[in-house]
Write a structure and sequence with these properties.
heterodimer, A: alpha+beta, DNA ligase i, domain 1, D-amino Acid Aminotransferase, Chain A, domain 1, OB fold (Dihydrolipoamide Acetyltransferase, E2P), seven-stranded mixed beta sheet, flat, B: alpha/beta, Metallo-beta-lactamase, Chain A, Rossmann fold, 2 domains, six-stranded mixed beta sheet, 7 helices, 22% helix
Chain lengths: 546, 328
């Protein structure tokens, strides 16, 4: 079984949009390849290997050296393609055609377990020669995979969930079980693949399954007709929704996307395993500012979750907390049918017990959510408006008499989100995008007025539709004042509505302010640049909030 | 050095213009005298007093826009004179009837490449190397990342793409003039033996090609299909303009692909919204452009229709060829 087969799989997955077809293709791949290659395929497709053997820049450099190719030409090509591995792959088509060497039919296993690791033992000169040799002996349609693995940029539109689904289909076993098996340090080997497709399920695997999540609906006016006392109020945290399960001594962390994330948060798993009871908690995982007692930005959490097996220093740099807001099962007893207000009493009771009785201190990583007690609906609105101060997104309003059902069932949980802040700003710079957006100007900078001058205040790249992006790209090319490398300064003409979540003073920016999560919410073609907001308006917005 | 105004052919209002003969090449606005390199719509505009092209281009144009345009035609290689300038058409290999145009005046040769490719294409005449002093070349794909595969390899990929999904209807989007006929010609030589349908606009061009003596496989006009189930496992050729919007609702269980040189780049492929892209082009790739520049023996080269910066710099640095810029 060869690298060629895997290249074909990559090509197929890359060009199929339907999830069902992708699953089918994966299933067939697993059926027709060796267990060892299958285990490597899973390793690659699930992103467990992002090891960078050489950088994209280095790859471009050796290509330039070997084939005496001007560096600037490679860089120009990169602007169009947006991926070093792919640029070199395309350029190689021009170079390796006339080769006489016999093509190798290397297996995925051989490439990943021998050939590529061996590269790191060579000195620079030998390494370059070996890469040249591989380029010239690998079949052309394997170049992309090879370059991507070398540069640690192998990615394809396949989630771990999709792999889970296809293996689940392959052997007719529930996805949760496969998820559990895929957890942990998956080392590619015949054994690890055989374990994955084992049809016998052990008890521990059965025990780790989460309950279907109950989801909140966007608030509707009719709720304000009800008595405020019918509801429980909580802050709506901007974290990762999670069920924290401990059964027969084993802890599992499940996200709402049915992903098992124990590996990303080992300190939480460790601490929770000291609690004597078994339980299923529903709650939110956050990176927590212990000093201010509020959550850090979601962006930090995102960084954190992307690090598998984080080191101690990462754990200290991004301290996490699990905030539980519901108790669904306690010592094997499913209590989802009990009313929320009674589940809350149980939750508080057990939390108190765990705090006192658990030998290790758990409160530095685990707490239960505070409740809010508005007097009436206008008071609830005031709370909602204040939610930015503690870095929450608004309120969650839960019916006290409700049971924990599944899905987005109406009338049980409501989310009452705070509106974003908005300013109308003028587009002044554009920069080329990378990856899928390569060759288009998709990174924009926006400015506000200060007297007669436009001062940059935010950059944003999301919010436009593909059609708008293309239209704007055309406009940008026609209305460039100056080019500085990949950046173009533009004729001030276009006005956009920019929304953001937070605004604060910043000495680092010329405008004196920084905004969080800026994004484009409207292309204000109806507005002239003189209608755009001033910096003064931004300062006013800041005052209003603090 | 001459000033820009003194060149025999220069840029005026975004078009190629020869002042001495008051001749425009593929003008985008109505003029008195227009030389037309080929019958694609982005090289043609209504309302010119007189058009001059090859015979094939004239026939294709009339088929597309109607008979009431005045076209004078010449054979490939046949010289004609306008105000003392010797002019001739030469095959450019882009589509049927497409041409390069050579101007000779006072012993100075100018060559306008038109849209061209060097790759084999059984539906039109092979590109002819023409020597010149000045070359005005297109450079749509003027970067070395563009390197076309043999067209029979692409055709086999397309054939595999269709036959691997026998339950589906395969919609292949391509330009209705030129690309569609080339694809039909290539695909009919592959293992795919199922039905091929084509959209009315493509069907019409197929017939014109056939009348001009090109062997094109017979297709069924998609408008004549009887019931939707007969389309299962077959190939349908459609113009790209129909890929967006409600037209696709006419079909069920489809897979879509786009045949274009741009599809060689993954980001563009992903962004295009088609399931699959086949990188096949009727324009020259990087090597093709370089080959033409070198073999034409031109001492001075102008580029248009594309990003010419990198190509120009490369020719100046690596090949010591003088690349000039049009004052637009």
């Amino acid at each position: 079984m060869s690298l060629k087969k895997f290249s074909e799989l990559f090509g197929d997955l890359d060009s199929i949009n339907s999830t069902n077809n992708k699953i089918e293709v994966l299933k067939n791949y697993f059926l027709s390849n060796d267990p060892i290659d299958n285990s490597w395929a899973i390793y690659l497709l699930t992103g467990k290997s992002n090891k960078r053997f050489i950088s994209g820049r280095y790859l471009k450099n050796i290509f330039s050296q070997i084939y005496e190719y001007p560096q600037w030409l490679i860089d120009t090509c990169y602007l169009k393609v947006g991926d070093s591995a792919e640029v070199i792959t395309l350029l190689l088509k021009n170079k390796t055609n006339s080769r006489k060497k016999k093509l190798s039919n290397i297996s995925l296993n051989e490439l990943l377990s021998e050939t590529i690791p061996a590269l790191s033992k060579l000195n620079e000169e030998e390494k370059n020669l070996e890469i040249k040799n591989l380029w010239e002996t690998l079949p052309e349609d394997n170049h992309l995979i090879f370059n991507k693995i070398l540069t640690g940029t192998f990615r394809v539109g396949v989630s771990i969930g999709l792999i889970t689904k296809s293996i689940s289909k392959l052997i007719n076993i529930e996805e949760e079980i496969i998820s559990h098996r895929l957890m942990g340090d998956f080392k590619p080997s015949i054994d690890s693949y055989e374990f994955l497709i084992n049809k016998n399920i052990n008890l521990q695997e059965l025990n780790s399954k989460p309950f279907p999540f109950l989801l909140a609906n966007t608030i509707e006016d009719k709720i304000f007709k009800n008595s405020i006392n019918d509801f429980q109020f909580e802050w709506k945290y901007d974290g990762i929704r999670m069920q924290l399960i401990k059964r027969s001594g084993n802890v599992s962390l499940w996200t709402r996307g049915q992903e098992l994330v124990n590996e990303s948060f080992p300190e939480l798993v460790e601490k929770m395993s000291h609690i004597k009871d078994d339980f299923v908690l529903d709650g939110e995982l956050l990176v927590w500012n212990f000093k201010e007692k509020i959550a850090f930005d979601f962006s930090l959490l995102q960084k954190r979750i992307n690090i598998k097996s984080p080191t101690r220093s990462i754990q200290i740099k991004y301290p996490i907390i699990f905030i539980a807001y519901d108790l669904l099962e306690i010592n094997g007893r499913d209590i989802r049918e009990i009313k929320l207000e009674n589940r809350r009493i149980e939750l508080e009771k057990y939390f108190l017990k765990w705090q006192i009785k658990t030998e290790n201190n758990i409160s530095d990583i685990f707490k239960i959510c505070d409740l809010i007690f508005p007097k009436d609906w206008p008071d609830a609105l005031t709370y909602k408006e204040k939610s930015r101060e503690n870095n929450t997104e608004g309120l969650i309003i839960k019916k006290k008499a409700s049971i924990y059902s599944s899905g987005r069932k109406k009338g049980i949980w409501w989310k009452y989100k705070v509106d974003p802040m908005q300013l109308d700003a003028v587009l002044i710079y554009a920069k080329g995008g990378s990856g899928r957006r390569a060759g288009l100007y998709t990174d924009y900078s926006f400015a506000l007025w200060k007297d007669k001058e436009l001062i940059k205040f935010a950059s944003a790249y999301s919010g436009l539709t593909n059609i708008e992006i293309k239209e704007l790209d055309k406009w940008i090319r026609k209305n460039t004042i100056e080019k500085f490398g990949p950046v173009r300064s533009l004729k001030p003409e276009m006005v956009f509505e920019i929304s953001f979540e937070k605004i604060q003073i910043s000495k680092r920016h010329k405008s004196g302010i920084a905004v969080r999560f800026p994004r484009i919410t409207k292309w204000r073609k109806d507005k002239k640049i003189n209608d755009a907001d001033s910096l003064e308006n931004a300062y006013k917005l800041m005052k209003k909030i603090s | 050095m001459r000033t820009k105004q003194e060149y025999l052919i220069r840029y005026k209002d975004g078009n190629l213009y020869c002042e001495l003969g008051d001749i425009w090449i593929d003008p985008s606005k109505p003029v008195k005298k227009a030389l037309i390199t080929h019958a694609h719509f982005d090289h043609f505009t209504f309302g010119c007093e007189e058009y001059i092209s090859t015979n094939e281009t004239a026939i294709l144009l009339k088929e597309r826009v109607g008979d009431n345009i005045k076209i004078k035609t010449f054979e490939y290689g046949e010289e004609f004179k306008i105000n003392g300038i010797n002019i001739s058409f030469h095959p450019s290999g882009h589509i049927l009837g497409s041409s390069q145009i050579r101007f000779i005046f006072a012993e100075e040769k100018w060559l306008i490449s038109g849209d061209f490719k060097l790759q084999k294409d059984q539906t039109c005449k092979q590109y002819e190397i023409v020597k010149t002093d000045y070359l005005i070349s297109e450079c749509t794909f003027g970067l070395p990342i563009f390197k076309w595969d043999e067209s029979n390899k692409i055709a086999n990929d397309i054939s595999k793409w269709i036959t691997n999904s026998p339950e589906k209807t395969s919609l292949l989007f391509c330009y209705s003039l030129g690309k569609a006929q080339r694809l039909l010609n290539e695909i009919s030589q592959t293992n795919f033996k199922g039905n091929i349908y084509s959209h009315g606009s493509i069907h019409k061009m197929n017939n014109s090609y056939r009348e001009l003596g090109i062997d094109i496989k017979d297709t069924i006009k998609i408008e004549n299909k009887k019931k939707i189930d007969e389309l299962k496992g077959s190939l349908i050729l459609l113009p790209p303009s129909l890929s967006k919007g409600s037209y696709l609702k006419n079909f069920k269980n489809i897979q879509t692909a786009f045949a274009s040189g741009w599809m060689s780049i993954r980001a563009l492929r992903k962004r295009s919204g088609y399931d699959k892209g086949f990188a096949i082009s009727d324009h020259a790739d990087w090597d093709g452009i370089l080959e033409v520049v070198k073999k034409s023996e031109a001492k001075n080269v102008f580029f248009h229709h594309g990003d010419s910066e990198a190509l120009s710099k490369y020719l100046v640095e690596k090949e010591s060829i003088n690349v000039l810029l049009f004052g637009k």
